[in-house]
Design a protein that fits this description.
heterodimer, A: 173 residues, alpha+beta, Alpha-Beta Plaits, two-stranded antiparallel ribbon, 6 helices, 10 strands, 21% helix, globular, B: 331 residues, mainly alpha, Formate dehydrogenase/DMSO reductase fold
């Protein structure tokens, strides 16, 4: 996934779309919006970042899961099998992005990149609902995909690369 | 200057302002696991060195407690799970990369052996109690013996255990080392928390656990030689522990920014007093001094340094669990 930070207006539509699409319980959210302010007056810069699970390439959550409930599906999406999760919290502790939480039913829940929509050839709910089209979704393994070209062309950064997780969400400057 | 604000509400249990999904039950379990590992380590080592009759408390009596300690720990662990009914999923697989999976399987082995070990010594335990005119527990030992002899299978298992005790002692020795070290490696496997994410934590937890084990034996044994030996071992272990602690903080201080911030929790941050005064001061240095004074001829009741070491072990784990969750990569 690639997100253009200059286009994001922080409306949190992605958050609401996700909650509706995935029946996220009230008070919980799988994605969230952060407002980042940098600099000193009068040189102040502000941008919004919509954040969620980074579907890392080097997944500490999958590594520390004692039952194998956390796993990576074909294509690189990180998911949790609810019936195999014992709710120990190891994956929550291991995620530097705080992308996982305990569902009120006990198991651990997180962003799935709406894999049920992706299978049908649709974009994740957050991407398709964005009013400014700031998000792009695609296959990063395919060098000819639109998203791969976009990341090559534009300057980008990832969140906490120093945590060693190889995050797969790129923020385009 | 950089400032961050959350735009939408995200008031999720255990996530804000920082991750806090593990609390006292986990810290208490880590303490109990280390304690049980320490007691079993001494029992197996001194059995294998042929000192079962010289040191009856260490080899025969103390392991009775380990089964109870591990059961309390297991109750705490399951209590802390959020999807409790699915706990059996732990034993449907073995994941070599996950320390928790290692721990779950080790705990099964240790709890079985720590039950069989004292059961196979039931006659010696009774003799030990009679020697001290403690006949109140005769009912219990008789009941256990009857239970063993009533059916063929438990009787056969106990007989086999007695016959091949040396072999099982080697297995239990290895399992108890894994149990002691895994409690530390469990935490150091989380790269999201710089305070936990250092390789010295496994050995540190092992040494601390064995130290609490020796304190436990020292406290409850009434054999003078056993007490003196455990006191000496405990002093060595405390010295090693202090070295590891300094080493751990040095390593973090020389590391990247996130690790320096983690070390700052103990060097002026909110856990400074708890760590240096309560844990290092009252849990390590003071019992070390008291044990040294006892060797010099001062009369100090062994329960005092022993209980201080046990308190220190528990406080150390509470501090590590809580401080570790606060230490995060700065966004």
């Amino acid at each position: 996934m690639a997100i253009e930070i200059n286009k994001c207006v922080g409306c949190a539509d992605c958050v609401v779309a996700c909650q509706t699409e995935n029946d996220v319980p009230i008070g919980y959210s799988r994605d969230w919006v952060v407002e980042k302010v940098k600099g000193y007056y009068p040189n102040i810069f502000l941008h919004f970042e919509t954040q969620r699970c980074n579907h890392c390439e080097d997944t500490p959550c999958v590594r520390t899961c004692p039952t194998g409930a956390s796993h990576v599906i074909e294509g690189g999406i990180v998911k949790v099998i609810h019936d195999e999760c014992i709710g120990c919290g190891a994956c929550i502790e291991s995620c530097p992005y705080d992308a996982r939480y305990f569902h009120p039913d006990g198991y651990v829940d997180k962003c799935t990149f709406c894999d049920h929509r992706v299978e049908d050839g649709l974009n994740p709910a957050c991407v398709s609902v964005c009013p400014t089209n700031c998000m792009h979704f695609g296959d990063l393994d395919d060098p000819d995909s639109d998203i791969s070209k976009l990341i090559v062309k534009r300057d980008s950064y990832t969140l906490l690369p120093e945590a060693g997780t190889a995050p797969q969400i790129y923020y385009l400057k | 200057m950089e400032e961050q604000l959350l735009v939408n509400t995200r008031d999720i249990y255990g996530l804000y302002p920082h991750v806090h999904v593990w609390g006292f039950p986990i810290a208490a379990y880590l303490f109990l696991g280390g304690l049980a590992a320490g007691i079993l380590l001494f029992a197996t080592i001194y059995y294998l060195r042929g000192k079962a009759d010289e040191m009856p408390f260490t080899v025969k009596i103390a392991p009775i407690f380990t089964f109870l300690i591990i059961m309390v720990g297991l109750v705490l662990l399951v209590y802390d799970l959020h999807h409790k009914l699915y706990v059996w999923q732990l034993f449907m697989t073995f994941r070599i990369e996950s320390p928790m999976s290692w721990g779950a399987w080790t705990l099964v082995g240790v709890s079985v052996f720590s039950l069989l070990w004292p059961l196979s010594y039931i006659d010696d335990i009774e003799a030990y109690l009679h020697e001290r005119n403690w006949r109140r527990l005769d009912g219990v030992t008789n009941f256990i013996r009857k239970f063993i002899h009533k059916w063929k299978i438990p009787h056969f298992i106990i007989l086999m255990f007695r016959k091949y005790r040396t072999f099982f002692a080697y297995i239990l020795l290895i399992l108890s080392v894994i149990l002691g070290i895994y409690t530390g490696i469990l935490l150091s496997a989380f790269n999201a928390h710089p305070l936990w994410n250092n390789s010295i934590l496994g050995p540190l937890f092992l040494v601390s656990g064995v130290s609490t084990g020796s304190a436990f034996v020292m406290w409850l044994s009434n054999n003078k030689k056993e007490r003196a030996l455990m006191s000496t071992i405990d002093m060595v272990l405390i010295a090693v522990e202090l070295f590891f602690i300094v080493h751990m903080i040095m390593g973090m201080q020389a590391g990247p920014e996130a690790y320096k911030q983690a070390a700052h929790l103990f060097l002026g941050g909110e856990f400074t007093v708890m760590f240096w005064v309560v844990f290092v001061g009252f849990g390590l240095v003071l019992p070390f001094i008291l044990e040294a004074m006892e060797f010099k001829g001062f009369h100090i009741h062994p329960a005092v340094p022993a209980l201080l070491v046990l308190m220190g072990g528990l406080v150390f784990r509470i501090i590590m669990v809580n401080a570790g969750q606060i230490s995060e990569y700065p966004f």
